[in-house]
Write a structure and sequence with these properties.
The protein is of the alpha/beta class. It is built from nine helices and 17 strands. It has two domains: 113 residues, D-serine dehydratase-like domain (Lyase, Ornithine Decarboxylase, Chain A, domain 1, Beta Barrel), CATH 2.40.37.20; 230 residues, TIM Barrel (Alpha-Beta Barrel), CATH 3.20.20.10. Helix 3 packs parallel to helix 4 and helix 4 crosses helix 5. It starts with 19 loop residues before the first strand and ends in an 8-residue tail after the last strand.
Length: 374
């Protein structure tokens, strides 16, 4: 069953049903433009990450501003992006299992499809599927540059996998995936930069070892919203894979700049609109957005527009706010904009975006890849 959208184009903000996932289109478009400009100035390609927005509509807006394609984490996301007109997709993840690999190889008949590996047996499986489907998969060796998640060790182990890829019919060795996810939310600027400096060093060494055996890296990919300027300025990375910059969230806002101040060059453009559903105590407000509305792995949401209101607790369908000062004027039925702690999994809880220009609904977009977990 498809859930009806919470709004229609032309509605006012007060008419939008809640809880609703809002995009401030003015701030959102400024974020798109800022990243496009930054990538151009750094001299790197932008392969924006669709795991944040899960939307071919947004993907194509990024591509219209110069992005060369999209990243995603799942085959299902890649299928939805390609169906939505995206011609170059990197699954910046390992794809394991016969069914998923077959779908990936089949998709490569319709678009440029890239995938990451960190295991020799996985290479054999990918190559066999590509040959069976008469397609070619572009393959990157993922190296562990510090996160301790996926990725083979930099250096000789990565070279061995690259040589195996290059020797396979149906596969093309395209370079390295060198993403340091763990560095994205290191708060201190100096510490965050040091983590990426290490990633750059081991990646550079691996590139040199690949060149010594005659293998060039068309792509050296990685970087996220928290670190892209470091990788972009390295002279090593050719593509940056930032995603959250389109929306930002409360957690990214806690990263510190060189001067020790919180904030970002990007703006909060994603909000959840919630309604005050209970107001029975002077210092307490209850809204209709709880654990089924927000991901709270990176902290509770922030209340926009009301500095004296603090979101202090969530249950399945309720959010509890502690209010003081001017926020005590918040009344039953009022609408509040809440900033998610973590934008990516919050988006995955919703079926629709409601794009606002000022107080008027300008667009309603499906979160098309919601739930594409395999």
């Amino acid at each position: 069953m498809t859930i009806a959208p919470p709004a229609r184009v032309g509605m006012s903000l007060d008419e939008v049903d809640t809880p609703a996932l809002l995009i401030d289109l003015d701030a959102f478009e400024r974020n798109l433009d800022r990243m496009a400009d930054a990538a151009a100035q750094l001299g790197v390609r932008l392969r924006a990450h669709a795991k944040t927005h899960k939307s071919p509509v947004i993907a194509n807006m990024q591509i219209a501003r110069g992005a060369i394609g999209q990243c995603c984490q799942k085959v299902g996301e890649a299928e939805i992006l390609v169906a939505g007109g995206v011609a170059d997709v990197l699954v910046s993840n390992q794809v394991i299992g016969a069914s998923k690999i077959a779908r990936l190889a089949g998709l490569a008949r319709h678009a440029t499809v890239r995938v990451c590996v960190d295991d020799a047996n996985n290479i054999d499986d990918l190559a066999a599927a590509a040959r069976q489907h008469g397609s070619c998969l572009s393959v990157l060796v993922e190296i562990d540059v510090g996160t301790g998640r996926c990725g083979v060790a930099p250096g000789a182990a990565a070279v061995a996998l690259a040589q195996k890829i290059a020797a396979q019919d149906g596969l093309q060795f395209s370079g390295l995936q060198a993403y340091h996810g763990g560095a994205q939310h290191i708060r201190g600027f100096t510490e965050r930069k040091a983590a990426i400096d290490h990633a750059i060093s081991v990646t550079r060494d691996t590139i040199d070892q690949l060149a010594a055996v005659g293998l060039d890296c068309e792509i050296v990919g990685g970087a996220g919203t928290g670190t892209f300027r470091f990788e972009g300025a390295s002279g090593i990375y050719t593509e940056i894979q930032a995603g959250s910059y389109v929306f930002m969230d409360a957690d990214y806002g806690r990263n510190l700049d060189l001067d020790g101040a919180e904030g970002s060059e990007f703006e909060h453009s994603l909000f959840v609109l919630a309604t005050v559903m209970s107001r029975t105590a002077d210092d307490r407000v209850i809204v209709d957005g709880g654990l089924k509305t927000f991901a709270v792995d990176s902290g509770l949401p922030l209340v926009a527009d009301h500095p004296d209101a603090i979101y202090v607790g969530a249950s399945d369908e309720h959010g509890r706010l502690s209010v003081s000062g001017d926020a005590r004027q918040i009344a039953l039925g009022d609408r509040l904009r809440l900033i998610p702690g973590h934008c990516d999994p919050t988006v995955n809880l919703h079926d629709w975006y409601v794009g606002m220009r000022g107080d008027v609904v300008e667009a309603v977009w499906p979160v098309a890849a919601r739930g594409a977990l395999f």
